[in-house]
Amino acid sequence: MIRIRQIEPHEVSIAKDLIYRVAHRVFQDTRLLEESVAFYESKGTLNDMDDIQQTYFENEGIFLVMTDDEKIIGTGAIRKLDDTTCELKRVWLLFEYHGKGLGYRMIQELLAFARQKGYQRIRLETDRDGQIRAYDLYKRLGFYEIPRYTDHQDEVAMEMKL
Fold first, then answer.
1. Residue 6 bridge partners (DSSP)
2. Considering the entire predicted model, what is its pTM?
3. pLDDT given at position 128
4. Which alpha helices (H) appear in 60-122, and where do they start and end?
5. 3-class SS at 27?
6. Three-state DSSP class for 156?
7. Rg, the chain, Cα only
8. In 27-126, where does DSSP find H-type helix?
9. Helix 102-116 / helix 132-141 crossing angle, nearest 10 deg
10. Rounded Cα–Cα distance for residues 134 and 117 (Å)
11. Spatial distance between the Cα atoms of 84 and 121, rounded to a whole number of angstroms
């Protein structure tokens, strides 16, 4: 049975591993997975997950996992940018679960949380070329491109009014 729930502290390393494995395939990284993980860990790519409590839960946000019979198959999070704006982060889903509406389901859960918290806008960053399926999903949901709000040069920024 597929469920969405808050991440437990002991599951952070499992969630990070899932994100690295999916990203490795999405971006067609030619390095061995272990080399790729070591490289991105050295860059601090997922540092926001090192203290999920502070980064998300204590920051008017949430970090969710999607499970299939207790196996983590996906992730998604919301964190506060300012009093009216939050950010959609870490939406990843194992490839074998793509095309089943589960990414949409996760995002809907996160959007409901953001609305309940009173946010007026939600932003995200994505790689339009490498993550074309995600980009298309965000467009269908009503996100539109905006000027970059971080220094991530290889990503496109998007926003949606809640």
1. 64
2. 0.94
3. 87
4. 102-116
5. coil
6. strand
7. 15
8. 33-43, 52-55, 102-116
9. 50
10. 24
11. 6
Q: Is 29 exposed, middle or buried (0-12, 13-18, 19+ CB in 10 A)?
A: middle
Judge contact between 125 and 155, C-beta under 8 A.
yes
Q: In the block, which residue shows the tokens 């969710």?
A: 64
Report the distance separating Cα 64 and Cα 73, nearest Å. Answer: 11
Q: Across the 162 residues of the chain, what is the mean pLDDT of every consecutive 10-residue run?
A: 96 96 91 91 90 95 97 98 97 95 97 98 92 93 95 88 98
Query: What type of residue is 88?
Result: L
| Nearest of 149, 145, 11 to residue 74 by alpha carbon | 11
Contact 59, 80 (CB under 8 A): yes
Backbone angles phi, psi at 123, to 5 degrees: -120, 165
